[in-house]
Design a protein that fits this description.
Strand content: 15-25%
CATH architecture: 2-Layer Sandwich
Low-confidence stretches: none
CATH topology: Alpha-Beta Plaits
Radius of gyration: 14 Å
Number of domains: 1
Number of helices: 8
Number of strands: 4
CATH superfamily: Nucleoside diphosphate kinase-like domain
Mean pLDDT: 95
Bound molecules: adenosine-5'-triphosphate
Largest sheet: 4 strands, antiparallel
Length: 140
Amino acid sequence: NERTLAIVKPDGISGNYTISITNIILQSGFTIQTHLTLHLAQDTVTTFYAEHSTKTFFPSLINYMTSGPVLIMVLEKVNAIADWRTLIGPTDARKAKITHPHSIRAMCVEDLRRNCVHGSDSHESAAREISFFFPGYAVI
Ligand code: ATP
């Protein structure tokens, strides 16, 4: 088994997608190992998305991710990292609607910035992101 970090972002929570997303997670064979609802502080988002700190969209990403509470979860199953990325769909939720109509981002349909959910994109980032929010949890 493998673990990954999933986040229901502020637009996912305020749009009332949490229950639908949780159902998709469980129906897809993941177990939710632990979870946490937090209203992220600017510093936390800055550290979490440090790889994007030089991008022009960084200030808007910080604004978005601090705009309301988020639900952070550790998901576990065989091939969890890649399978969760497939389930959430492409970064641009408007494009996801066309190319991946059954993806979670297509369901929430916002835009390139507000895309409802996050998923770790590699084993390395899953390890970093899981221990960032849940110290002591391993990626397996
Ligand atoms: P995430 O890391 O949140 O799972 P991702 O890996 O699909 O998303 P990244 O390229 O890592 O996409 O971008 C991180 C986040 O930054 C995106 O989810 C989105 O919220 C925001 N973002 C990315 N590109 C843009 C952009 N061009 N304009 C505005 N926001 C953007």
